[in-house]
Amino acid sequence: MKGTAITVYDSVVRSLSVVTPEGVRPASVGVRDGRIEAVGDHGANMPAREVTDLGDVALLPGAVDVGTGVHVPGRGLDEAYRSAGTSALRGGVTCLVASPAPARPALTHADALGAHRRAAALSPVPVLFLGGVTGGTGPLDLADLQVAGAVAFHCSLSDGGAPDMAALGDAQLRKVMAELAALDSVLLVHAEDARELGTPPVSAEHRPPRAERRGMERVIAAARSVGTRTHVGPFTAAECAALLAAAGSVGVALSAHTCPHYLCLPSETLAAESPAHACRPPLRSDANRRALWNALLSEGSAITTIGSGHLPAHGLYTLEWSLSALWTAARRRGRGLTDLARWTALAPAGLMGLGGRGRIAAGYDADLVAFDSDARVTVPAADRSPYAGRELTGRVERVWVAGRVADGGAGDDALPGG
What we know:
The protein is an alpha/beta fold and 418 residues long. The protein has a domain at 61-351: TIM Barrel, CATH 3.20.20.140. 28% of the residues lie in helices and 24% in strands. It has helices at residues 77-90, 110-120, 139-148, 170-182, 209-226, 241-246, 260-264, 286-297, 322-332, 337-351, and strands at residues 11-20, 23-32, 35-40, 51-53, 58-61, 63-68, 93-98, 127-132, 150-156, 187-190, 230-232, 254-258, 303-306, 368-378, 391-401, 404-406. Strands 6-7-8-9-10-11-12-13 form an 8-stranded parallel sheet. It has a 4-stranded mixed sheet with strand order 3-2-1-4. Strand 11, helix 6 (241-246) and strand 12 form a beta-alpha-beta unit. Helix 1 packs across helix 2. The termini are far apart. Residues 409-414 have low confidence and may be disordered.
């Protein structure tokens, strides 16, 4: 009688708090060939070449950061992607979905996307791309970008982050939506209406909440006529929450994206020199911040994804601290690690159609994050992020990308605790 073959995994990671789609539980995660092959009981017999026991430290799915700005003025493309990937690892992000602008060259045609893909090979985390939509973008451009690897598309109703992404008018918006519906793709929209912005549109008073409201009204009207899946962001003006929630009742598949700094940093507390003044849309009042949380936590909320809003071209370096900042604020509101994983990993991966990412389950990529949810971390006062000098709760201890421990490189780039 032949014996039963014993599975030997490349590695097994155990934790008393593994965040699975079914909830948080003690478990062991078996990894082979870069993918999760099994999720068993914490004490399961799972022979492996390497076993890591995290104890009380939680195990999360790696975050998927949508719309990450990578371009750094004065730096080469290769260096920009390496830097963004290193910051991503520090912040528990295991996949970047890069914004099409600001970028050099802007990601508005297939040749540019090819140049970015070659440069992104130096990133320590996988990088995917949003195709940029401009007034001159035609059906062939969209199809070519999709074939070249664009996982979704992005446009703006205002400044778009760079001159390469000028504002779309209503006729152009409807036309693009119709073309993307035919491609079965998703359109991300920066929904501030250019006609509602002041001059120059860099201060809070020149980027009022009504710009978001007017932009969302335009997006809903266009999407209602053509049926395109649409995701607006960054969503910041809580007064628009009712408008967002009502879109589904008129047959519009509209959802939204926000960022931890909009949920954590009220405008009243910002120092004059804070890089957070560069946020577009701007940080808003504490009353708006609290209302934005209410909208996020409401049953069936259409605010489904939360990402770093990392935008070094505007002086916003947020990748490293966004997960901790979000957890700090969410925990105070009684939310758990399941919420954190849904906002930062599960929902973004679903939005982008990344079937192999965003959850700890058999068959998914072994992109994992050891996260000490009780650790107190003080952001250095000299840090370039909007969180400089603040005490946060939650620290990324270790990251696995496709089953391999990633340390972000040597020296100053190494992960804390790695």
